[in-house]
Amino acid sequence: GQNIDQPTEMTATEGAIVQINCTYQTSGFNGLFWYQQHAGEAPTFLSYNVLDGLEEKGRFSSFLSRSKGYSYLLLKELQMKDSASYLCAVRDHRRSGYSTLTFGKGTMLLVSP
Amino acid sequence: DAGVTQSPTHLIKTRGQQVTLRCSPKSGHDTVSWYQQALGQGPQFIFQYYEEEERQRGNFPDRFSGHQFPNYSSELNVNALLLGDSALYLCASSLRGQSTDTQYFGPGTRLTVL
Question: Could you write out the DSSP letters of every residue in A22-77?
């Protein structure tokens, strides 16, 4: 089976930097995704990592270490609109040839003025 | 370029009833996955459809069934509704064979079972 852990809640101040960690245990690892979900809305795609290292996309960056089963999402220059739940999701490749996505419970980030 | 659409937006049913939710994938996508998201939880994988067949299934009972049509749209059916089926049902589409195979989500259907 799969196990994905991320903190339940985090708080930060507008303009600051915050790092949201995600650890996972899975077989057949085939990529890690980060999604942002505002309350009552659908998850929106933020980033994808399949190789070790850092992927940067504007104010958001995501890091992956496959050997450690570890990823983080880094948010810079925080804005009030960044208050949302951040979901870590791992894709595993099955022998069937089809892959599935397993989500963590999400980290609720609250950005205060 | 139309994104993933779902209908209805909200739905209220009573225990024992049946419900059908609908999803149209993002233009150019051929794979549809369904998720159940309870309040305060991450989405839980229900099943995935490709070429009109169920290809993967999560840990959900047979009361949950689905279908994919030739135009790639999909339906999720839930029979004998239970109070615990109250949740946000999300549809996600992707293009099989694409290197990242990123799933894009629709706005969801909020199902309330009374």
Answer: EEEE-SSEEEEEEEEE-TTS--EEEEEE-SSEEEEETTEEEEEETTTTEEEEEE-S
Closest CB to B107: pick one of A42, A96, A98.
Answer: A42
pLDDT (mean) for B44-72: 95
Q: Do B102 and A102 touch (CB under 8 A)?
A: no
In A, which residues are within 8 Å of B103 by CB distance?
Answer: 33, 45, 101
Residue linked to tokens 């659409």: B5
Q: What is the DSSP string of B25-52?
A: PPTT--EEEEEEE-TTS--EEEEEEETT
pLDDT tens digits, B39-48? 989 999 999 9
Q: Report chain A residues whose CB lies below 8 A from the CB of B40.
A: 105-106
Please state, in angstroms and rounded to a whole number, the distance separating the CA atoms of residues B12 and A113.
Answer: 38
Residue A45 with chain B: CB contacts under 8 Å: 102-104
